[in-house]
Amino acid sequence: METPAEPRARRLFGGSARALGDLTANPFRADRDRIVGSPFFARLGGVTQVISPVGSGLLVHNRLTHSLKVAQVARAIAERLTADDRWCDLLDKLGGLDPDVVEAAALAHDLGHPPFGHLGERVLDRLARQRLGLADGFEGNAQSYRIVTSTEIRGAATTGLDLTAAVRAAMLKYPWTRLDHPDPHPRTMDPPPRGATPPPDDPESGSSKFGAYRTELDDLRQAREPFAGRIPEWQQTVEASVMDTADDIAYAIHDVEDFYRVGVLQQGSVSAELMAWQRESGHFRAITDAALATSARRPGAAIERLRRQLHRKDAWIADDDAFAAAVEHVREELVDGLLAMPFDGSIEAEQYVARFSARWSTRFVEAITVTDQPSVRSGYVLLGCAQWHEVQVLKFVHHRFVLARPDLALHQRGQARLLGTLVEALWEWLLDPEEESRLPRRLHDLVELAEAELHPRIPDRIGRARGRAIVDFVAQLTDGQAVAMLDALSGRSGALWTDAFVL
């Protein structure tokens, strides 16, 4: 017979090497401290969020400041929900909500993010699958989970950070593997959950987003075991849903801050797009998709495509009135507000940005609710309808006016080429029998770790272990370290001894 303490013990320590010890202590705060103390957390200060910190000044967010802000928003959401009597019984039924858990998971959620932001993630995935023969490829969320469970060594007797089951489960935005867990796989659902759809250019490759590689599947199952029977296998825990929502909020608000600070977001272009759609929304809604495609450069057309995309992908919440209201609210706050005063680095300008961010953060956090019957494309914790649409419009602004810029594309193509060349150079180094004794110690250790994970009868076991080790090694670099290492491997660096820091 299970005692009342056993479900809590499984939630706290399932799959963890730590002794059960005193359940009155707070192991989740210990998890948070272990994450913050990890060198992987410190390295995030040199990893791109959207705009590379190199050459962009000191004011843009990097993965470290982004993670800190996600943790701040996630904790605020958790504290608000747990203090509201309306949600207490439902939260307990679904497996619980602890502010320390969501804060720790938020701090850890980007530990595996590679150099150069999402561009680096896409390039490493392509190289891992097509060049190195790894069916799982590369995925930033799965790499974060790999770090806390295996590749980050905390001490001689433990592998990974030895986090509690609850925190590990809360890190799983996408609680499935790329191809085969759970069965049936969520990519076969109609509609599939967010992230489960295969990339359009490679429909046989499995889900675009996933939470763990096949090598960490046992750990994923252990972390999720306390929630069995409470939530579907493919659904986020409540705490993962809070972290995911906080990530969306921080991304929508703080990236707009960055683009404003560096002068990329211009009032005129954003205003023209939003106001053209407002003036001619009836016309835009009436034309066919084909006609809309032929007028792609016309102001208002891009945001009309967003409206239609929301209806196609998220019919469970997409609403034309809410969308129109969101466009108006973003126009008032962003076009007539923030962008009306060009950023000049003054104290007044910084205060203006801070007030903008605080208003939006408060608005979103106060709109969070909990449901016991979420859409397949949602979690148990979600934004109100009005605020959900506002997040989509804010994200549209930086996609349209920053990510689509040719000058950014030029920069990113260079970064993609750099990563490809670096992976190829490391592969050749690993294959050179005369250089085995001079391999970077970390790379050598990662090869041994990957070999130990693979079954002895797997075809080309050594080759796959080397491929995974290269991916792990490159993914742990900062932007600057990736550049410096390629310079050294290409013979362009003259700093012989100082180049050792990248090894």
TrEMBL record:
Residues 63-252 form the HD domain. It holds the Pfam family HD_assoc. CDD domains: HDc. Residues 189-200 have a biased composition (Pro residues). GO terms for molecular function: dGTPase activity. InterPro entries: dGTPase (IPR006261), dGTPase-like (IPR050135), HD/PDEase_dom (IPR003607), HD_domain (IPR006674), PHydrolase_assoc_dom (IPR026875). Residues 177-210 are annotated as: Disordered. GO terms for biological process: dGTP catabolic process. NCBIfam families: dGTP_triPase. This is dGTPase. It comes from Micromonospora chokoriensis.
